[in-house]
Amino acid sequence: MIPVAPLTLDVGGIVVAVAAPDPWRPRLAARYADFLSSGAAGWHVAVRAGWHAEPKRRSFVEHGETWTRFGYADFGGWLDLAGRQAIVALASDEHLLPALERMLVYLLTQALPQDAGGLLLHASGVMRQGQAHVFVGPSGAGKSTVARLASGYGQVLCDENIVLRLGAAGPEAVSTPFWGQATPETAARLRLSAPLSALYALQHASTFSLTPLTPAQAVLVLIDSLRIAVEQPARASAWLAAAKNLLAQVPVYRLSFRPTTELWDFLANPHSAQPMP
User: What's the domain range around 106?
Assistant: First the structure.
C-alpha cells in the first residue's frame, strides 16, 4: 500500500496532515469529515501497517526530551516533538481509528499548551444557550452520564475529550472527534466551539450543589483530567502557564449532582436546588 496525499485535520486549532495508505482514506475521511481543513499543517502523522508488540512489554508509554513512544498489543507509535512528525503502526486494519486517535491525543496533549496556550481535557462538554459547560472527573464520576442527559437540552461537544483555549473573546471550549469507546461509530462528530461558561468537577450525590474551587484546587482538577504534559520541565512550564491563564478567567466548581435532567435547570439557577425527599 502506497501513501497518497494526506488528509489535513484541524482539531482545537492544531492542524495535522495525516498520510495513510489509499484503502484507509475513505474510512478516515468519513470519521473526520467535519474536521477536514485546507490550512497549512504544522504537524505530520504517517499511518502504516506492520506493528508487532514487544513480547515482554505489551503496554508502555515513554517520554524523552523531544519524543514520546507508546506501544500496546494492537498498535504503537513514535512522536517527534522537535520535528513535529509522528508514525503510528497497526497490527491490522481494524485498529486504524483507535491507533490514530491515541496518537492524536498524545500529540494534542503536547502541542496545545506550547503552540496555542490551550489544554486537552479528558472531559465532556455541552453547549447550551450559546455557552459551553465542561465536566471533568475520574472514571465513573459522570462525564458520559452528563453527555447523555444533554439529549434534548443542549448540543454535546464531545463525551470524552474537550479542548480549552483562549479565543478572541475569551476562554472557549472546542469539540474534538475523539469520543468514548461506547459511542457508536456512526455518531456525528462535529467541529464546534462556544464561550466557556464554567468548568465543573463532578461527584455523584443525592442532591445538587455547587462549591467554588480555589485556584490550587482547580489546577488539581485539571491534573486529574489525565491529559497533562509535564514529563519534562519545558512541557510542564507550558502546561502550567496555559492552565493559569485559563483558570484566571474561568469559574471552576465542585458539582454534586444526581443523574437526572434537573441538572440543566440547576445550572441555570443554582439557588433553586432542593434536596431529594
Answer: 7-116
pLDDT tens, residue by residue, 88-109: 999 999 999 999 999 999 999 9
Put residue 170 in one of left, alpha, beta given phi > 0 → left and psi -120 to 50 → alpha. Answer: left
- Roughly how many angstroms between the first and final C-alpha of the chain, as a whole number? 64
Q: How far is CA 17 from the centre of its chain?
A: 18
Contact in structure between 99 and 77 (CB atoms under 8 Å): yes
Cα–Cα distance measured from residue 114 to residue 129, given in angstroms and rounded to the nearest whole number: 31
Domains contained in the chain, number: 2
Q: How far apart are CA 50 and CA 70, in angstroms?
A: 15
Residues facing residue 85 across a β-bridge:
44, 80
Q: Which of 92, 96, 94 is nearest to 45 (CA)?
A: 96
Q: Are residues 180 and 262 in the same domain?
A: yes
Burial of 108 (0-12, 13-18, 19+ CB in 10 A): buried
Locate 275 and state its grid cell: 434536596
267 touches 129 (CB < 8 A): no
- The answer to whether residue 106 sits within a structural domain is yes
DSSP string, 88-110: EEESSGGGHHHHHHHHHHHHHHH
Both 108 and 128 in a single domain? no
Contact 120, 109 (CB under 8 A): yes
In a shared domain, residues 144 and 41: no
Read off the pTM.
Answer: 0.93
Q: What CATH code is carried by the domain that includes residue 268?
A: 3.90.228.20
Instruction: Yes or no: say if 202 and 177 are a contact pair by the CB < 8 Å rule.
Output: no
pLDDT tens digits, 50-89: 999 888 887 999 988 889 999 999 999 999 999 999 999 9
